[in-house]
What does this fold into?
Amino acid sequence: MSTRRQFVQRTALGGAAALALPSLAQAATRADSKSITISNWPLYIDIDEKTKKYPTLDAFTRKTGIKIKYLEDVNDNNSFYGKVAPLLRRGQSIDRDIMVLTDWMAARMVRAGWVEKLDKSKLPNSKNLQPSLQHPTWDKNREYSLPWMTFMAGIGYDPKKVGYEITSVDQLLTDRKLRGKVTLLSEMPETTGLVMLSNGDDPTRVTDASFGRAIKKIQKALDAGQIRQFTGNDYGPLLAKGDVLAAFAWSGDVVQLQIDNPSLKFAVPQAGAIMLSDNMLIPKKGNIELASTFMNYVYDPAVFANIDAYVAYPSPVAGVEKFLAKTDPKILKNQLVFPDARTRARLHSYDPIGADNRDYKELFQALVGA
Amino acid sequence: MGFLHRHRWLTPYGLLAAGLGWLAVFFVVPMYYLAATSLKSGDIDFGYAFTWAWGNYAHALGRYQEQLLRSLEYAGIATLAAFLISYPLAYWIAFRGGRWKNVLLLLVIAPFFVTYLIRTLAWQTILADDGPVAGFLRTIGVLGADGRLLATSFAVVAGITYNFLPFMALPLYASLEQVDKRLVEAAEDLYASRPVAFFKVTFPLSLPGVFAGTMLTFIPAAGDFINAQLLGTPQQAMIGNVIQSRFLVLNDYPEASALSLVLMLAIVGIVVVYARALGTERLGT
It folds into this structure.
């Protein structure tokens, strides 16, 4: 019967009756197997280290009978886009029902019309979305997207080795004591966003002038030999060993690094830090009903609490505290996972249009040396 | 009479078929697509179309000359370094290895049981600012008090040298192994000193190995991007890093393809000149 409902739905979406036959075939096979495919970033969900199974996903399958093929194949927004864009452009399926992409890339997908509308009737739990995340500029009422996780980019450092508390980006870029011991992130929004904030510019509304100022400042620090490298997650070991004294870092990485290096700190600069989200989207031809059912499941705070305890990033789902108080009370005191109101006030998002601007990307890549 | 018996002239082609097929599918066809892509224009959102966009080459060459030259320079230095390290090594294994030959060869290859990435990451630890090597060099005054090895040109070249060393050592060994020791003895009997015998007899006879080893090292080294990324800074970016960034970050396939072809042609050019200089007739046995 779910086959039939889907058939009707798909026909309505497709518009033309001529499309009904292939749609029927597709819907039938899909619903019979009742499975969905999810593309997410690596290490972004709780995993049982011993069995290598995903408890949250297994519980979902037990509850709903919907099987999940979980791929950790989003390593980078751009290369993932490069992989799926040619298919989506031609209106072909990318054989995924949910993909998780960062704000600006999610915005591009919505703009291109390559994603399906969420089935809100299957998604009562979307009411649990944190109020501050409910109305992004690129998806005003969250019709197409729901955050999977939010993350902060700030400064990771060891106060013992640096000798003082870092409170500003300028300290990284100018203090001679840190010369050659600083890394920035190779992600353009994070790095230019943090520098813009230090310039007193607004990263939520990037202009040629503010972007140019940020690039100029980074270039100056590069020329002075202050910056050692631009990195992905690989600043972690360097920071832990002390080759790098201060780094633009993701808060979740620092939480992980702190397990072995408790003296490491994550600083939200006085001028502010960047906060972005990775968002669940249903690519065109994905199974809207089943994907929405899955999203609804993870938006149950009792479920998301388990994911969040493992991933250690700020939760986009409100109400997880109540469940974590029982299972992992320590995490509630962690400012990096549950930032207080004062810290939250210093977190800024990044202009999704600016983050997607080709000229800006070229400028930034030139800075990175490539 | 069977078909093959009647058409015996077909046999060599039959034997070549698998190799030629491989070459066609994995070299000729990709090359065609690479060349075609390099002349496209457009963007990733709306797709690329073939337009004879020669401008991609002009743009790529104009803008990334620095990284291209740096790649050839680093690859050249690394090849030379690998040669200087490998030749005595291969010589010693071939002539003095005795019954330990196989064990010694295994030791040369042993690091290759670990993946490329991990091997390179290990150099981050070896060359670390507070690591043993940097510490020693600081003590003897070679490195300044706040000098470092990691994230310098030295680290990148060292990483490349290390990573491609077996490609140099093994062909050299194979060549040296085959040198007829009686020829060396004959030279010495004819009053050649040992160095002269080496330069007049042994070294010329090992030239095919030198040629193979330098090619196998230089070619992949010129296109490498891992070492520059993990052991260098933006000032050490090589053409491989540019191609990777244009391809995966900016999704600019035409220019990435153009750069790949330029790199390939540059390498082919260098190889041709090198082969001429070394004298191809001396390479034949």
In short: The CA atoms of residues 7 and 24 of chain A lie 6 Å apart. The longest strand of chain A covers residues 145-157.
